[in-house]
Design goal:
The structure is a homodimer of 150-residue chains.
Chain A: H1 5-13, H2 20-31, E1 36-37, H3 38-48, H4 54-67, E2 70-73, E3 80-83, E4 91-95, E5 101-104, H5 110-120, E6 123-124, E7 130-134, H6 136-144
Helix pairs in contact in A: 2-3, 3-4
The structure holds a DNA duplex (25 and 25 nucleotides).
Chain lengths: 150, 150
DNA sequence: GTACATGCAAACGGTTTGCATATCT
DNA sequence: AGATATGCAAACCGTTTGCATGTAC
């Protein structure tokens, strides 16, 4: 029972066709690193089927997002997706120096969410939540340059 | 003493030229609404000087950002800027339904920031912080549709 | 057989760049 | 005078779309 068998059921249920391209893209996302860029998904999937077109990847990812199979992640200025996993919902910290993305447990956001909801009636979309900043490594690297290098 | 006199000093100090275009763009940002898109800045500034080119706006905004005169805001998929005001630093909540952006006082983020810093050594870049979600109006509008409309 | 998905190529929109000209200092 | 900023046009890059062909059902 693979990680994405539920996704296949979802496709059938909605009357969508199970094309080889869709399966490839699904596998690419399921097996690839977390929060993948479209180009990354494309490269991976194309390894198994060189005729695959970017347009298909975009269309498929949009379909998957609408079905709830993948989640869009607001990581950079380009689109990123990851397999939706309600049991392990998490968020991201993105280092703007080195570009790395780190997962962040929802635990750290519960209180924040509740506050926004209570005070402003604003329901944060935490499935798509990202904080940018500086990660430990890049932070310490900066310090090594010393106060002179600014 | 206008809101942006400090900015002019900053420009001179860094040896940058005070061209009419730059002044116009600065004024457009200072007088316009918070977190303006590039096109909005462009339209406003061009009202006073129709020959103004978008490229100049982009170049100028980047310069201003590097000088710290404006702050880049990660509001949508396009670039947004606002006049940097250290005394009234704030963040944003963006409604993904209607697109409106609301200011969010740093008060609500202090604790969150401290936690990330302490636990992960991750220094969030809160000058560029944005939560997406659903605002009060769009949230209640959804409810009005009732449980049937899903 | 028919509706839907794909590949291909071309369009699109925001942003950037090369270059000759104009302008600030 | 000399360096730098501008306008213009064209490149760029990620993403989307139109259309004829192909394929899952």
């Amino acid at each position: 029972m693979s990680k994405h068998s539920g996704a296949l059921k979802e496709l059938r249920a909605k009357g969508c066709r199970l094309t080889p391209q869709r399966l490839l893209i699904l596998e690419a996302i399921a097996e690839g690193s977390a929060h993948m860029g479209v180009d990354e998904v494309f490269r991976r999937a194309r390894e198994s089927y060189p005729y695959l077109d970017v347009a298909t990847v975009y269309r498929t990812l949009r379909l998957f997002r609408e079905l709830g199979v993948v989640t869009e992640v607001g990581i950079a200025d380009r689109l990123h997706f990851e397999l939706t996993d309600p049991a392990a919902r998490h968020h991201h910290m993105v280092c703007k120096v080195c570009g790395s993305a780190f997962d962040l447990s929802p635990y750290y956001l519960e209180q924040f969410r509740e506050t926004l909801s209570r005070e402003f009636g604003f329901e944060p979309d935490l499935g798509n939540f990202t904080v940018t900043g500086t990660c430990v490594r890049c932070g310490s690297r900066k310090e090594l340059r010393g106060p002179i290098g600014n």
